[in-house]
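Friendly challenge for the regulars: who can give me the structure tokens for this chain first? No prize, just bragging rights.
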Amino acid sequence: MSTAYFALMPRDGLFCKDGRGWYTSDVGRSHAHAWPLPSTVRGALRAAWGQALMARRARALFPEAWEQETQGVHLGAVLTLRRPLDEAFAPRHRLWPTPADALAVAGHVRRLLPRPLPAGVGTLGTDDDEALERLWRPGMPPGKPQPLPSFWTEEALCGWLRGTSPGALGAPEPCRRTDVRVTLNAQTQTAEPGMLYQTEVLETLGAGGVQWALGVQCGLPEASPGFPGPVGLGGKRRLALAEPVPEELFSAPAGLPETSPGLRLILATPAHFRRGWLPDGLEREEHEGHPAWVGTLPGVEGRVVLRAALVPRPMDLSTWDMVRRAPRATRRWVPAGAAYFFQRVDGRPFHALRSLWLAAWGQDPEEGLGRVLPGHWNPEEETHP
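First reply, four minutes later:
Bragging rights claimed.
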């Protein structure tokens, strides 16, 4: 197994349609993901690997053989990058999903700090789950919440993981445009009268000479210098060029705390857990005289108890199987930015937080899912700095 590090740079925008059909309440209008999902990136790289195999062997691959030959293309971490065109990619160009434990009020970003609920206080819901009811909830600062940007800068996120609030709200949003296209008749290859449709295209070259890209850590079945070359990414297989990047682009930043009384894990990429929002490895057990979610985490010493989970609305992913020419089963993911809070069962602090940087968590790690960012958390802290 060989590992390649590169940046994918779409040259003509990017269109990644979501699972909603064309004939909904918005007839003729498509809906796109805000940013390419890891599974989309892996699919494009598997296609590029298959094309390279056919070129080397000078023969075509049938769909079943293509699927088997490209299974060894694994995706590691996938980063969002934004740089000036005259600079080489570096860690300072990384952007991160907005953490779910952040709240903007009156122009300031506040930290949502989970605390135990008073006795007798419950929540509204359809499930009577005492372990769920025992999860801690954050207190809400006074004021009307304001919308947060989609991405945070490297500096803002590093401070957030240390337990400090950023001064700025985040990075600028990528530009988007709407393309209007004509539907073609499959038999005549001519335009269908009155059949127009729209696509939402993400612009990757912004004003002021700024470029958006995807940083990719990719495992390959064998060493392949020059891979991947030009890649067809997203709808219409728009070309994306590849540029090698240093391995340090995926390394942990300086200044991360080495120890913490509690552990806060923020998803850098969407995660796929077997039981929806609940992380794998946790089971319902008695803890401190009450039901709780207790278990182990990859790379974490000792047993842990889940104290809080701040999880946005789930992502429902519908994809198409190119080999079988049929839709795959819909999967439900936890979105990037979700925050989970843990304590050790034995009450000891957590150590070696840097080793958890971009570690894999949950199902389908070969698709780049479940990459986490470790952060400091003090369960006794009650203020909102």
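The domain at 2-95+172-246 is CATH 3.30.70 (Alpha-Beta Plaits). DSSP finds four helices and 27 strands in the chain. Your move, everyone else.
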